[in-house]
Each structure stands twice: as C-alpha cells, then as structure tokens.
Design a protein that fits this description.
There is one protein chain. The chain is built from 18 helices and 17 strands. By secondary structure, the protein is an alpha+beta fold. The strands form five sheets. It has a seven-stranded mixed beta sheet with strand order 1-17-2-3-8-4-5, with helices on both faces. The chain is globular. Bound molecules: 2-acetamido-2-deoxy-1-O-phosphono-alpha-D-galactopyranose and magnesium ion.
C-alpha cells in the first residue's frame, strides 16, 4: 500500500524530473533554488525537499469526521533547500535556523529551539528532554510553518539529549497562500522533510541503516505538526501532499487507519482551478468557522450515537464515521466495509439526523441549538461536555448547527464513494466518456450546494464563480479546501479548456483587466502530480 512506501530520495536529476510526471520545465525552478542558495549562503544546499499543494476534487470537511476524501496533488509546490551551517559560530545555538524565503515580502528569520529541562532529574544528569519553539498561533507568519515542521522532528528525534544541527534554509513556492490549495500543508510537509533530511533521519540513520521513514509516518508527523499552528485539521492535505501519484486522484480513508489508493481520472476530463481572490485567513476565523465545524460534527456524532443507543465512553471523542461503524456492529479491525454497505448505511444516517434538529421552529431554531441544549442532548454534564469537546479548542458561537453539519457530512461521504466508483467503472469500460464526465460534474455540483447550504462554508464570491463556471461550460464546479474564500475547482472537457478560461475571465468581475501571467496565477488547468520527495546533492 502506498502509505507504507519510503519517501523517495533522488540523487539523479533525470529520475527526479521523471518522477514529477508532468510536462512542466522543472529544471528551471529547481536550479534557481539551488543557485540562489549558493549565492546567499556561499555553498550548495545538501538537500531540496519538495511538497506539492493539492486540490480536493470532492469530499469537503469530512476528513476530520474520518470519512474518505478524493484530492490530487497539483504541480504547484513548495521547495525547501537546506544545509548544515559549515562553520558553527559561538552564537549558533543547537538547532538554530537561518531561514530565508525567495519571496521578497517574506523577510529573513533566525530562530532556535529552546531546550526544556526535565524537572525531575538531578542536576548532574540533566538531560534535554523536550524542545520548545515559539509559534504565535494568533499571528501566523511564513516561518510559523517552517517551525511547525521542525517541531515534530525535534520531538520525535531529539528528545533524548542529542543536539540538532544549525542550518541554513531557503524556501520558495508557487502554491498561493490562503486559497484552499493547502499551501500550509505543503509548507509543513516540506519543512518536516527538510529537517528530517538534514539531520540524517530520513534514511534510518546516518549510515543509511535502520528503517526508512514511510510516507504514512511522514503524514502522521505533518498532521501533528500542523496542529501546532492552531488548526485542528483532518489529514487530507498532508496525505495528498505526501502520497499522491501522477495522473490520478487519491482516495484517502482515515478509518480504521490511514490508507490511500490511486483513482484513475477519466480521459478527456480536466480540472480547472479558479481563485475567488477572497483570502480566508484561518488564523483569524478558525474559532468561528473551521474549529467550530470540528466541534459541531463531534457533538453531532455523540448525540446521534446516544439516540441510536450505541456505546460511547464519556471521555471519547467519537466521530461520525465511527458512529456509522458501530451502528452495524462493524469490527474496526476488519478494515473498511464494502462500499455498498457503507452507501446504504449513509442513507440511513441521513434520515437519523432528524434527532439533531432544534425543537423550535422559531427564528432562534433556524440558528441551531444553544450550548445548553446541545449539552442536554449529549447526555453529559456541562463539565464533562466541556472537558471532551471544548477544553482543547477555541470556538466562538452561541448556536450550533448540528443537523445541517451532519447531513452534509453523510451526503458528502456518499458522493465521494460514488465519484470513486464512477471513475473505477469508467476505467474498465471506457464507453462514453462524456456521460462519465457529466455524472462526476453532477456530484461536484451537489457538493457545492451542500457546502453552501448545509455546511455554510461557501461565500458569495465562491457561489458566483461556480455559477459562472457552470454557465460557460463546466460540467461541475465547487469550492475546494476549507472554503470561506479561496479556490474553486471545475470539471471541463479537454477541448474546451481555453475557451472556458477566456469566458470565466471575461465574466468574473475581479478577473477583469488581468492578462498573461497575472491571469495564469488565478485560473489554471491542473494535472495531478506526484507527492513529496527529496533531492540529495552528492
Ligand atoms: P485547507 O483549506 O486547504 O487548509 C482544510 C483542512 C483539511 C480539510 C479541508 C476541508 C487544514 C490544514 N486542512 O483545508 O484537512 O478539512 O479544510 O475539506 O486545515
Ligand atoms: Mg491549509
């Protein structure tokens, strides 16, 4: 299985470019980072780590409920060149980082992890137990993501007293920030990889012995690392950035454990990304949207389980996917259940969501249930509820839309399974590709409606842009990523791509007046690319 493979490390440029699997001119970009590194730091980098952004084709806001999703890595990526500092100066604290970014508005940053000493050991045997890096989650900066990636490497590999190397790094990237293409995950994956590589942890140990780090392990580290910047995300972005393969989407499921498999996309189908140019700043809005949704879906899961008389421990944060499993006495160790069973059960669950509706139809009821009502529905005491659902996350809300959120999650989970089935069936009998594309487009449109009306993660500009896309020839169009701004993804027939882009850019107001490169930045076709890798200079 893909997640068990080691992270690819290339030492030969032909192999590296071949693995990227697209027609772009990669050499230019990789050479320019290496040359720029040489200029700035006076020597070649030791490694360049690459991590791509991703587009989610379908399956929004269900990864943290542990339902399967269907993203693909894109060609746009983050490259991080890194090398140990050759002459360690007195001022170079262990593990200090001299970080530069090729983007000029991201200024040079120097930081070092502070060792935390374990209180319980005596003075003589003081050992460095833990490292601390200051990440201000209220004000995320470019280096916050570098630190987040570094953090996990420190925790996992330098907890026992050894010192990490001081390093120089140079970051460059083409994934637009805050646009739903997961620049954040790409930064965190890239940084985790770069620090693993430079500290000799990627290939077991320095002599190349020992177990190599697998793609699955990197995903787990990157997910934990990204939580350090304050977003309680699911694992979709990191998995897509690490495990993707060229020309396919990736079906990623999180239950009973992380697994991923390639899903071939029908020939003639092109996915076009268009940026609404509304920037969703997750650091600012997480309390009112992203993290709130995480809490709403978890609370919904507990209340559903209670209404279905399923067993849930008081302190357990049961997810909606686990509720589905327990309903049918699914044995978690047995792996994922057959698709037909899952689709059937999801339909039933959509009906069961009735118990989540507020019991007043008044205006207040429209807003969802209050905190007190939610706690009462959960069967927990206020204190128990707070400990399990609120103590670890900051949310800001007076009302909670449990019914709408759960309804979205179950229907979206079933659309992902249908999308995958259509793609797999089309591969074995490629009879009428147009019908296939139409069916996929339909599912994408239903997803957008559900995101907008039930999950309420769209915004007027995203609604407008998806409508325009459908009007000028897309078979389907939806927001991609967390929403509340950022990008849309539209399914367009291959021979219609140029005219589609032209028409959208003539219609969507914020695109008017954009030409050439400026336009290519905001609307572009994308081919599924390969996942993260490392180039090692010899
Ligand atoms: P974006 O918007 O790309 O950061 C976020 C989450 C995903 C997933 C989607 C919604 C992070 C790092 N990622 O993606 O895990 O939940 O929203 O489907 O927060
Ligand atoms: Mg992100």
């Amino acid at each position: 299985m893909a997640a068990e493979q080691p992270i690819p490390v290339y030492t030969n440029l032909t192999d590296l470019y071949g693995s990227l699997g697209t027609s772009l001119n990669h050499a230019e970009k990789w050479n320019s980072v290496a040359e720029e590194f040489q200029q700035r730091f006076g020597r070649k980098p030791a490694f360049i780590a690459r991590a791509p952004g991703r587009v989610n084709l379908i399956g929004e806001h269900i990864d943290y409920c542990l339902f399967g999703v269907l993203p693909a890595a894109i060609e746009r990526d983050i490259l991080i060149a890194i090398s140990r500092r050759p002459n360690i100066h007195a001022e170079d604290a262990p593990g200090s980082v001299f970080a530069e970014n090729m983007q000029t508005n991201y200024t040079r940053q120097v930081f070092a992890p502070a060792p935390r000493r374990r209180a319980s050991v005596s003075e003589e045997e003081v050992r460095l137990e833990e490292w601390h890096l200051d990440i201000n989650t209220k004000e995320l900066r470019w280096e916050s993501y570098v630190k987040a990636g570094y953090y996990g490497v420190l925790m996992n590999y330098f907890a026992g007293g050894s010192n990490p190397a001081p390093v120089d790094i140079l970051v460059t990237g083409t994934v637009p920030a805050g646009s739903g293409l997961s620049s954040s995950a790409a930064m965190v994956v890239g940084s985790t990889l770069a620090f693993l590589a430079v500290n000799g942890k990627l290939e077991g140990n320095f002599s190349g012995n020992g177990p190599k780090i697998t793609k699955g392990q990197l995903v787990e580290m990157a997910v934990a690392n990204e939580k350090r910047v304050g977003v309680n995300s699911g694992g979709m972005d990191q998995a897509a950035s690490v495990i993707s393969v060229p020309s396919s989407a990736l079906y990623i499921s999180f239950f009973p454990e992380l697994s991923a498999s390639a899903v071939p996309l029908p020939s003639g189908a092109v996915f076009i990304i268009a940026n609404s140019l509304v920037v969703s700043d997750k650091a600012v809005t997480a309390k009112r949207n992203y993290n709130l949704r995480v809490v709403e879906t978890l609370a919904a899961a507990r209340i559903l389980a209670r209404s279905l008389e399923l067993k849930v421990e008081k302190t357990e944060k049961v997810t909606l996917r686990e509720v589905v499993g327990r309903l049918a006495g699914e044995v978690e160790e047995a792996g994922e259940m057959p698709v037909e069973w899952l689709l059937e059960t999801l339909k039933r669950m959509e009906r069961e969501t009735e118990c989540l509706k507020p019991n007043k139809s008044s205006e207040e009821g429209q807003m969802g249930v209050t905190m007190d009502e939610m706690i009462e529905m959960s069967g927990l005491t206020a204190e128990e509820f707070h400990d399990v659902y609120l103590s670890w996350v900051e949310v800001e809300a007076t009302h909670f839309q449990l019914y709408k959120r759960a309804k979205h999650v179950f229907s979206e989970a079933s659309r992902v399974l249908q999308f995958r089935q259509i793609c797999l069936a089309a591969e074995s009998s490629p009879s009428s590709p147009m019908d296939v594309i139409k069916e996929l487009g339909q599912l994408m449109n239903e997803s957008q409606t559900s995101c907008n009306e039930l999950f309420q993660c769209s915004c007027p500009e995203l609604n407008e842009l998806t409508e325009i896309a459908k009007n000028v020839g897309a078979f389907g169009s939806r927001l991609t990523g967390a929403g509340w701004g950022g990008c849309t993804v539209s399914l367009v027939a291959e021979d219609n791509v140029d005219s589609f882009i032209k028409k959208v850019s003539a219609t969507y107001e914020p695109y008017k007046g954009l030409h050439g490169e400026a336009l290519d930045e905001v609307i572009f076709a994308t081919k599924p690319s390969s996942g993260a890798c490392v180039y090692k200079f010899e």
